[in-house]
């Protein structure tokens, strides 16, 4: 078990190194440089020379990469060009906002998806399954920007129940955010719940058709006891990786939803940084998002290994 954990951690670190290298090289090969992009029409003479020296662009690329990578390891992402402030200060409020949005969406969407998936599987081809499956398929097929726009149109404009656009600053307090995230949470939960519910449904149906469940039914094991003790624990194991990817997707910033609702999270910061050609922030976001995906997937793999007795016994034999 320990060897497997160390192996996964090693692969995760290699992945982050490759991402950092690709990110740095990708920024380097872009036409122009950060100074010409930032200064625009003033990119000449003393102003350009000062900017190049301030950003260290007169140093060879490999030295800049080593310096940048060593700073990233220490948690120092450098300075934002558009904000002219440390990137850590730029990211702080955005990370908090994305965490708030992700946490509320997770607390609502994941339990709801599991319950709906179980209901549709246990009442397969009956009225509950038909109704829920129709809604989930509809939610999965509608593009995210369309569902978000329809929510704004119906709930915010026609009914006037909730604000459609988030107009609070990025450093707003937790309670100020809560009153403005209802529609973004609904938009995210619709897609997240639909995908996870369909996956849980398929998994439960597959386990229900397995030999040991059929044998339990023939032996007279009470139906609900068999469902809760044998079916659900085995059916929900495959959901761990899907939940992990969903959490990583949420923590990394839901770009379309945040842009449509003007929500000040990491997803919107990605678009703003690309539009402003704020390359140091783009580099920092790439590393942070990659770290989130690698870390959460590592946790999901380890949870699957610990909760699945067949995998544990296989590791013991090895």
- Percent of residues in β-strands: under 5%
Overall number of strands:
0
In terms of structural class, how would the helical and strand content be classed?
mainly alpha
Output the CATH homologous superfamily of the largest domain: MetI-like
**Overall morphology:** flat
- Domain count, please report it: 2
Rg (CA only) = 24 Å
CATH architecture of the largest domain: Orthogonal Bundle
For the biggest sheet, the summary is: none
The CATH class of the largest domain: Mainly Alpha
Secondary-structure element string: HHHHHHHHHHHHHHHH
Query: Counting H and I runs of at least 4 residues, what is the number of helices?
Result: 16
Low-pLDDT runs: 313-318
Mean pLDDT: 81
Quick tags:
318 residues, MetI-like fold, mainly alpha, 2 domains, flat, 76% helix, disordered C terminus
